[in-house]
Design the sequence.
């Protein structure tokens, strides 16, 4: 090749290097120096339709504008391209521009590059989804912790108020007894019978309903709110505060994920928002209902009471 032809190849190589999209790969390769017939082990660092960047396993002694042949395999395709070195860093990194590539081989290379691009897009989408899921989990965890702290503070306030009321009742009772010195005191047994201990009192109907779970068997749909996808399954048990569902397929997300649950029971349709509270196994999850309206809550309570009465 004459000097003018080498110069044209060098200029064309610069233009191709700037214009062609390059894709990162990591594939073993072999480099053959045409002039000396020396064979060098190397790896492909990135690849485009008109050239590649190569990293040799030992120092590359030759300079630029050397005729070479590079052999490699990517995405199931085997390639052997003639080319010329466009540049070298003086150590082990060099750029190669392909030359005299047939239309068929160029088409196969284009197909391999398309597969690489598709794989890169899928990987980026998966990483974005994982990042979004992590962010949602962190936000949900923070919200739950904040609500738990508020509930704990409210419970402490309620306990203090109860203690104050009990103390006030004791003082009031002592005043009444002081004003009625001739009042006949009831025997301890009778007094205890007339005023049962609050700890042994029978829980109210509302309290029974709040935590009671009833076994049911009906189809359900879980809607993952953030990604707008659905999972089908069956409800195993139901309470006012939540339910347990076995999905038909593997459940793909973690706890604290916002969901909506759709099901129909005793002819009544329900769609309740909530959050994943527990994951029992790959297909069984516990859901805690959130922001349930008074009407929906009353319907669930009545439904659970009817199921309990029917079984009893």
Sequence:
């Amino acid at each position: 090749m004459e000097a003018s032809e080498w110069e044209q190849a060098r200029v064309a190589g610069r233009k191709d290097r700037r214009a062609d999209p390059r894709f990162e790969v990591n594939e073993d390769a072999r480099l053959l120096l045409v002039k000396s017939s020396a064979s060098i082990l190397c790896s492909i660092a990135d690849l485009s339709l008109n050239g590649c960047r190569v990293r040799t396993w030992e120092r590359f002694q030759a300079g630029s504008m050397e005729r070479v042949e590079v052999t490699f395999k990517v995405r199931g395709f085997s390639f052997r391209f003639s080319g010329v070195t466009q540049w070298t860093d003086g150590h082990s990194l060099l750029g190669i521009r392909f030359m005299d590539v047939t239309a068929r081989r160029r088409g196969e290379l284009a197909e391999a590059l398309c597969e690489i691009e598709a794989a890169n897009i899928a990987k980026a989408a998966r990483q974005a989804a994982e990042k979004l899921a992590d962010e949602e989990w962190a936000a949900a965890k923070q919200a739950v912790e904040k609500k738990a702290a508020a509930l704990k503070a409210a419970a402490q306030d309620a306990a203090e108020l109860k203690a104050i009321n009990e103390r006030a009742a004791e003082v009031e009772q002592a005043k009444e007894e002081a004003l009625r010195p001739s009042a006949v005191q009831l025997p301890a047994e009778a007094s205890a019978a007339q005023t049962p201990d609050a700890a042994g009192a029978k829980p109210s109907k509302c309290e029974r309903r709040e935590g009671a779970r009833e076994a049911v068997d009906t189809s359900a749909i879980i809607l993952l709110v953030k990604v707008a996808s659905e999972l089908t399954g069956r409800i195993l048990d139901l309470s006012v505060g939540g339910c347990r569902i076995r999905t038909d397929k593997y459940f793909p997300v973690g706890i604290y994920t916002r969901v909506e649950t759709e099901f129909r029971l005793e002819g009544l349709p329900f769609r309740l928002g909530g959050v994943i509270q527990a994951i029992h196994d790959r297909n069984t999850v516990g859901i805690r209902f959130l922001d349930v309206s008074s009407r929906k809550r009353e319907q669930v309570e009545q439904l659970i009471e009817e199921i309990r009465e029917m079984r009893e």
User: Anything to note?
Assistant: Helices lie at 3-19, 103-179, 188-194, 205-211, 294-311. The chain has five helices and twelve strands.
